[in-house]
Design brief:
Blueprint lengths: L5 H22 L2 H11 L4 H30 L9 H7 L1 H8 L2 H6 L3 H22 L6 H14 L1 H7 L17 H31 L2 H37 L3 H28 L1 H8 L8 H7 L2 H16 L5 H49 L1 H6 L8 H15 L7 H21 L3 H21 L1
């Protein structure tokens, strides 16, 4: 971002928001639907292969349709002329995303492969950005690298998957594509609705007030969303297991895992949110440069999203989804998307990217409140409303109090030290109130050290 500047980043983000719609259309609801369906049959090679081929067949058809529509629009809509090159350059995202079948690996819980591949690709991406992106004229190079970062690794998935499926077991006539359509389309409506208020903000900003404000808003939004990725990754790890437990009617284990997942989401998201809010000015200047100082206030506004989206993901994909209640989630996000569009159209022309940040926050918060009301019965079973969960928020306030009590410092080493000290205060408070996951992990560490000591005696 520092190298490219506001306008170039805005141009890329605007083009990327358009391609994202085609990725979503071509994948329908399969990324989330596939995780659950594969998790349910992961121990049966025949059915697992059959479900995989059925879903892949749908993806290949929708991918072809998406490309035909995309290229028709690129060469027939005048307003896209300035974005033609960059749109064509990042269009491989559609194909690469779909052949990557990430949902399959998540469904069988092959987390080691997913994690190792993720780390390697991100390391290569960072290196390429530093070596190849030198000026604002390198926006196409930047776009190509980001495309590789997002979906380039999916080529490896397509070959690695041979280890888990057996094509010899299935004949084409045995495939039953129709049975998946209802579930896929239900989730597709939810997915496209979520995307509307994730991507439409960039699209509307670019259309109503220009690329500059897309660049300012997307910088803060992307940094926040990157942090959220760590929280939702925890959810995606748990989803296959929860789906499998619910399918096998092991409700006791299901509720235990749900409660533990909730506590980890709160434990991680609250301190991250506090740090983004407290150090937004430094984070923006360090990560993007002084040209992006207009991103500081949006980052402060968006910082609670780490907690809010963590809870939304938990309620939608940990509670509703394994139970086959995706229709309720679809309804919530559809309503939220409509509210988001209306509010953005009204307020963007007057308040620019600040309006988009507030709309994003308000819409996500409303969605969480609605889902809490919808799932109240299930939430009571996992102690969602327990006072113990408030301790995480109190710990977050103690963190924030410690940070603001120290004079403003613009030094990376001192800021890192302050973050570490504030987190220690957070952990110490949770230990004092004997919050379960802290006590549990401390006991695990003690047991490990005892075993280690016994081994070397």
């Amino acid at each position: 971002n520092k190298t490219l500047g506001v306008d170039a980043v805005g141009k890329y983000e605007y083009a990327n928001s358009i391609i994202t719609y085609f990725v979503l259309f071509s994948s329908l609801g399969i990324p989330m639907y596939g995780i659950r369906e594969i998790a349910r049959v992961r121990d049966n090679e025949l059915i697992r292969t059959k479900v995989f081929l059925e879903l892949l067949s749908i993806l290949l058809l929708t991918t072809i349709i998406s490309y035909l529509l995309l290229f028709f629009l690129i060469f027939n809509i005048n307003s896209l002329n300035n974005y033609k090159e960059i749109l064509i350059l990042i269009s491989p995202l559609i194909f690469l995303t779909n052949i990557g079948v990430e949902w399959f690996f998540q469904g069988i819980e092959d987390q080691l492969y997913i994690t190792v591949r993720f780390i390697i690709i991100k390391a290569i991406t960072l290196t390429l950005l530093f070596l190849l992106v030198k000026t604002e004229n390198d926006v196409l190079t930047y776009a190509a690298i980001m495309t590789f970062s997002t979906a380039g690794s999916n080529i490896f998935n397509f070959f690695y998957i041979k280890k888990f499926i057996n094509l010899a077991l299935i004949k084409f006539k045995d495939l039953n594509i129709k049975k998946h359509l209802k579930g896929i389309l239900t989730i597709f409506l939810a997915t496209i609705s979520v995307s509307i208020y994730i991507q439409m903000d960039n699209t509307l900003l670019g259309y109503l007030v220009g690329d500059k404000y897309v660049g300012l808003y997307s910088t803060s939004n992307k940094l926040i969303r990157f942090a959220i990725l760590f929280i939702t990754t925890l959810g995606s790890v748990m989803l296959p297991r929860l789906s499998n437990l619910y399918e096998n009617k092991d409700f006791k284990s299901y509720n235990t895992y749900l409660e533990k997942t909730l506590k980890y989401i709160l434990f991680l998201s609250i301190p991250i949110s506090v740090i983004f809010f407290s150090f937004s000015d430094y984070i923006i200047e360090f990560m993007a440069g002084k040209e992006f100082l207009g991103s500081i206030i949006p980052m402060k506004i968006l910082s609670p999203l780490v907690v809010i989206i963590g809870l939304a993901y938990f309620l939608a994909f940990m509670v509703l989804y394994p139970q086959g209640e995706e229709r309720l989630y679809t309804l919530v996000v559809f309503i939220s998307a409509i509210i988001s569009i209306v509010l953005n159209i009204i307020f963007i022309p007057k308040y620019f990217h600040f309006a988009t940040a507030w709309v994003n926050l308000i819409v996500e918060f409303l969605a969480v409140i609605i889902m809490i009301i919808m799932t109240k019965k299930q939430l009571l079973k996992i102690n969602f409303f327990s006072f113990n969960n408030i301790y995480y928020f109190i710990g977050g306030l103690l963190m924030y109090g410690f940070i603001v009590s120290i004079n403003h410092i613009n030094n990376i080493y001192l800021i890192s030290l302050i973050c570490c000290c504030s987190f220690i205060i957070y952990l110490s408070f949770l230990y004092l109130v004997k919050e379960s996951i802290i006590i549990e992990n401390i006991n695990k560490i003690k047991n490990y050290l005892k075993k280690l000591k016994w081994t070397y005696q």
